[in-house]
Design a protein that fits this description.
This protein is α+β, with helices and mostly antiparallel strands. It has three helices and six strands, in the order E-E-E-H-E-H-E-E-H. It has a single domain, classed as Glutaredoxin (3-Layer(aba) Sandwich), CATH 3.40.30. The strands form two sheets. The chain has a four-stranded mixed β-sheet. It has a two-stranded antiparallel sheet with strand order 1-2. Strand 1 and strand 2 form a beta hairpin. The radius of gyration is 15 Å and the shape is globular. It starts with a strand and ends in a 5-residue tail after the last helix.
Length: 103
Amino acid sequence: MEKRVQKGKEESVLPAYKFRLFVTGSTPNSVRAINNLQRICEAHLAGRYSLEIVDVYQQPAVAQSEQIIALPLLIRKMPLPERKLIGDLSETERVLNALGLNE
């Protein structure tokens, strides 16, 4: 999925970002990870991302298919290659760098 933006006579293609965040219910770390990721995405990718939140307690098969080793876990599904980041996503610069958003 791409979003085209018209700038003057030039047209640029902005990559669509797709994220999947694995959490464990409403634990403090999970809630922080959700809030931090939503804040980062709105500040840096407004209108150019989709976010799927997967509670491993409610959807264990999805978590098993991704071979989860620690939680919370964020996976950038698109653009490829996939990138993974573990933790509550509280260090914005680290998150941006790990997900390739500072490139």
